[in-house]
Write a structure and sequence with these properties.
InterPro entries: Gal_Oxase/kelch_b-propeller, Kelch-typ_b-propeller, RAG2. This is Recombination activating protein 2. This protein is mainly beta. The protein has no helices and 21 strands. Strand 18 and strand 19 form a beta hairpin. The chain starts with a strand and ends with a strand.
Length: 228
């Protein structure tokens, strides 16, 4: 599944985790979204509460290999779902391709965790479906890096900046294509401080693992990616 952390406004909501999609034990795909929170810490024992969140509107289809992040703008927050793969529609399935998957459409979904509303956005800069990309959320902005396009079987050196503005009315979502991305899929992302992240492992080709790591650093609104 795709996971992320979520900072709630209440003291009891300080540590929350969002879980979306993924494969179930019987190899089906899930479209469920769960909010997991820490209920209490007591004698070194941590108790969690996991709640399923029902969505209305443009609900993201069941998928895996995608990302979910949370953006914060003007005192409000919103979840952002992007990418992933899903089974081909039932009407197109045949016995030989019953479990075949395809890239999900490159739509960006905004999810309101408070009211359970989901809205999809089509951005002209996002032309191809991507899976197993790296996503980084900073304030009102998400950076999408790398990924694998199943339709073309390529790992393009993508770097997209998706900015979400949350005024009193309808949200505004825009995307900018940035230069100097890297070709990577299925990598691990770790945050080392407020302005620095590290990418470890992953693939640069179908049968070629990445043997270098990258540092991603931010200064103001500028992003820099370098090998380490």
């Amino acid at each position: 599944p795709a996971t992320c952390t979520f900072k709630g406004g209440l003291e009891s909501e300080k540590q929350q985790y969002i879980i979306h999609g993924g494969k179930t034990p019987n190899n089906e795909l899930s479209d469920k979204i769960y909010v997991m929170s820490v209920v209490c810490k007591n004698n070194k024992k941590v108790t969690f509460r996991c709640t399923e969140k029902d969505l209305v509107g443009d609900v993201p289809e069941a998928r895996y290999g995608h990302s979910i992040d949370v953006v914060y703008s003007r005192g409000k927050s919103m979840g952002v779902v992007f990418g992933g793969r899903s089974y081909i529609p039932s009407a197109q399935r045949i016995t030989e391709k019953w479990n075949s998957v395809a890239d999900c459409l490159p739509h960006v979904f905004l999810v309101d965790f408070e009211f359970g509303c989901s809205t999809s956005y089509i951005l002209p800069e996002l032309q191809d479906g991507l899976s197993f990309h790296v996503s980084i959320a900073r304030n009102d902005t998400i950076y999408i890096l790398g990924g694998h396009s199943l339709a073309n079987n390529v790992r393009p050196a993508n770097l997209y900046r998706i900015r979400v503005d949350l005024p009193l009315g309808s949200p505004a979502v825009n995307c900018t294509v940035l230069p100097r991305g890297i070709s990577v899929s299925s990598a691990i992302l770790t945050q080392t401080n407020n302005d620095e992240f590290v990418i470890v492992g992953g693939y640069q080709l179908e049968n070629q693992k990445r043997m270098v790591c990258n540092i991603i650093s931010f200064e103001d609104n500028k992003i820099e990616i370098r090998e380490m």
